[in-house]
Specification:
The chain is mostly helical. It has a domain of about 90 residues. Helix 4 packs antiparallel against helix 5 and helix 4 runs parallel beside helix 7. The longest helix is centred in the N-terminal third of the chain and has 26 residues. The relative contact order is 0.13.
């Protein structure tokens, strides 16, 4: 619940309508930026160092989709979470790499290629890992 709702204050409709449009466009705009970065001409000879190797991408993917959920599961057990709470924690830990990593990489000009590939690969593979988590814990 937003602070404005908690206090009972309401934005004027003239201010609220544009903010609602902007907030609704944030995720689609980020996805378009990510997609546009993936659609490029053949990589130049100088680009492979920027792209990050397959090994680096494999490590990022394994840490995000395997290690992070295992750590969350272990922490959840240590905290004596209930089964639904444990499932929620592990599922959240196993979600794919957020697109904001690509946006930050693009903004600062560092690691754009590896970030967009990490988002793409972890999003694709997270379908399997999240299904496995749901089967094991659900």
């Amino acid at each position: 619940m937003s602070r404005a709702r908690l206090t009972g204050l309401h934005l004027p409709s003239a201010a609220g309508a544009p903010l609602t449009l902007l907030s609704g466009a944030a995720v689609p705009a980020a996805l378009v930026a990510l997609g546009a970065s993936l659609h490029r001409a053949a990589p130049s000879r100088a680009e492979p160092a920027e792209m990050g190797g397959l090994g680096e991408l494999a490590v990022i993917t394994a840490l995000k989709l395997v290690a992070q959920p295992v750590i969350a599961y272990t922490a959840g057990l240590a905290l004596h979470l209930s089964a639904p709470q444990l499932l929620a924690v592990v599922v959240c830990a196993g979600l794919p790499t957020a697109q904001n990593t690509f946006i930050f990489g693009q903004e600062y000009g560092v690691g754009e290629a590896v970030a967009n590939r990490a988002v793409l690969v972890t999003t694709t593979l997270s379908l399997a890992t999240l299904a496995a988590v749901a089967t094991l814990l659900g």
